[in-house]
Design a protein that fits this description.
With 565 residues, this protein is an alpha+beta fold. It has 20 helices and 19 strands. Strands 1-7-4-3-11-10-2-19 form an 8-stranded mixed β-sheet, with helices on one face. Strands 8-9-12-13-17-18 form a 6-stranded antiparallel β-sheet. A hairpin with a 5-residue loop joins β10 and β11.
Length: 565
């Protein structure tokens, strides 16, 4: 089945959205960066992107290479058994689009598939094993990027990933830590245990992991494009393996998967335009809603406690609306125009008290509502000014932990991103209702928020993993960018988060001083400082006024790499 374009002929549309007239009219102060910047969650992926650029590829070819290498070395977080959103900016004509490679529910999926006879949700089925997996989208996305936007053949851009899968890569600290954390779950599935627990035990730091079966799968994609994954030998092996272990995939499900081009969510803040993720992501709408609430406050002029209070109140309201209204817009009438309208934000702002928290259970909405380190992100600016912000995922750590024998990659557990039961929290504590209920061929609601920021003097690409915290991390990164800081600052700054329910402000160590915690608590906020940090932000920026190109990789993971070359 062919791919679907929801925008129309490539490069043949008027630039729409909320970009300020002055911004549109202003010519670029520097025509091109002249160099390239790549920031990703693993140094081998960053190097692969630069390798492809050196061979004459553009940012979109590099995105194929980076995505594919991460699919080999970072299966804790992403892979061809999962999905992705790629946000693109094409320099030659200003064209922007989100490539939707989100996973899809198989035809036999239904809204009660994880419910026990007593009506409770079977969490193990929803997150572990083949029944938790949606039809993957990343492989189709790699082919689509190369065919529609790249300059090089797909086979060329996949060479680094194939080489690394065959020759191997050294075990690094994050991978070893996640293997220790999920060892018992991985051991439930023999193929996954064989791949990641060589000789039946945890690998040593620096030990080389080889995935020759994954190399073969990637070679089929390189030779045949999407058909090398969604039809033929790979598809048959996947379907047979999933069904043998209790899953519900069919060959028709595989062949029917399509990439979709989505018009990004566009909003403005303090003179910058944001191009960010559209449904089935909840991130772009939530970011637009929060920024619309915050803009009149001029929060840069406020003290830390007052600023945090207002940002938290904006987060609270956006996550309330996420739970009520957001899902796959192909299946549910998402009220995007309303949620991103400045007048709607004004109404929400009117309910915010300047010196007192609003308890979440006092917000209008549904009654009786109960309430990481996975996923991956990379950002690219090439020498011509093309940009990519891409967030990739298998959902939770190692996804479903299930690997079909002979494939070398784990399958996602994105079915848990649907609402298994109205008001029931998923693995990230996020709640949902009819808008995000399970339906055949539907794509689950996501928090992934790859974002581009366009200004007169500087442009940027950013994003991060982190489950429900993705949205708030990107928000804080955008605010830090607007404050005048660069990628090293966005990716490093301590983070805080509020998601409506549970009604708490979660914060990393160092996000607030003891006095600031007391100040927030005096306003009625419940603050919980977490021992473990979260996120793995990757960002790049081009200052068109000075010509400087910069990149930042989150120091929290230890394996990331940001290179300007």
């Amino acid at each position: 089945m062919g791919e679907i374009s929801l925008i129309g002929q490539r490069g043949r549309r008027l630039r729409i959205g909320l970009l300020l007239v002055a911004l549109v009219a202003q010519p670029l102060q520097a025509a091109q960066p002249g160099k390239a910047a790549i920031a990703s969650a693993h140094y081998l992926a960053t190097e692969a992107g630069h390798e492809i650029l050196a061979q004459g590829g553009n940012a979109f070819d590099a995105a194929v290479a980076v995505s594919a290498v991460l699919a080999v070395v970072e299966q804790t977080s992403s892979g061809i058994g999962g999905g992705a959103f790629w946000m693109l900016h094409r320099a030659e004509d200003g064209f922007e689009v989100m490539i939707d490679g989100r996973e899809m529910a198989p035809a036999a999926a239904h809204k009660d598939m994880y419910l026990r006879t007593d009506g409770s949700v079977n969490r193990d089925l929803a997150v572990n094993g083949p029944l938790a997996a949606g039809i993957p989208g990343e492989a189709a996305g790699l082919d689509y990027l190369a065919t529609h936007y790249g300059k090089l053949p797909l086979s060329e851009s996949l060479k680094p990933a194939i080489r690394i899968a065959r020759e191997g890569f050294p075990v690094y600290e994050k991978l070893l830590g996640m293997l220790k954390y999920k060892e018992s779950d991985i051991r439930r599935w023999p193929a996954a245990a064989q791949a990641f627990l060589p000789e039946g035990k945890l690998p040593d730091m620096g030990q080389v992991i080889k995935l020759p079966e994954l190399a073969v799968v990637l070679e089929r994609i390189a030779a045949e494009g999407r058909d090398g994954f969604y039809t033929g030998e790979t598809a048959r092996r996947l379907v047979d393996g999933v069904q043998a272990a209790g899953g519900i995939w069919t060959m028709e499900d595989m062949a029917g998967y399509t990439i979709k081009e989505r018009e990004p969510v566009r909003t403005t803040y303090q003179g910058f335009e944001l191009i960010t993720a559209s449904p089935p992501s909840s991130g772009g709408i939530a970011i637009a809603e929060m920024l619309n609430i915050l803009e009149p406050y001029q929060i840069a002029k406020l003290g830390k406690v007052q600023r945090t209070h207002l940002v938290v109140e904006a987060m609270r309201r956006a996550f309330r609306d996420r739970a009520l209204y957001l899902g796959d817009a192909d299946f549910y009438p998402v009220p995007q125009v309303m949620l991103t309208d400045v007048n709607y934000a004004a109404g929400l702002r009117a309910g915010i008290m300047f010196d007192k928290a609003t308890p979440s259970d006092m917000l209008p909405g549904r009654e009786n509502l109960p309430e990481g380190t996975d996923t991956s992100h990379f950002s690219i600016i090439d020498a011509e000014g093309n940009m990519v912000a891409a967030t990739l995922t298998v959902n939770t750590i190692f996804g479903s932990k299930f690997m079909v024998p002979g494939t070398g990659f784990v399958l996602n557990n994105e079915m848990d991103d649907f609402s298994a039961k109205p008001g029931e929290p998923n693995a990230y504590g996020l709640i949902g209702f009819t808008a995000n209920e399970i339906q055949p061929f539907k794509r689950p609601l996501s928090s992934m928020t790859p974002t581009l920021i366009m200004g007169k003097d500087k442009v940027a690409a950013m994003g991060t993993p982190g489950g429900s915290r993705i949205i708030t991390m990107v928000l804080l990164g955008v605010l830090d960018f607007v404050d005048g800081n660069g990628p090293d600052s966005w990716v490093s700054l301590p983070r805080y988060h509020h998601q409506y329910l549970p009604d708490k402000v979660f914060a990393e160590q160092g996000a607030f001083s003891a006095a600031e915690v007391k100040g927030l608590e005096a306003m009625g906020h419940s603050v919980e400082i977490r021992e473990r940090p979260w996120g793995n932000m990757q960002g790049v920026m081009w200052n068109r006024k000075t010509g400087e190109l910069s990149a930042g990789s989150d120091p929290r993971s230890g394996a990331g790499s940001a290179i300007v070359r």
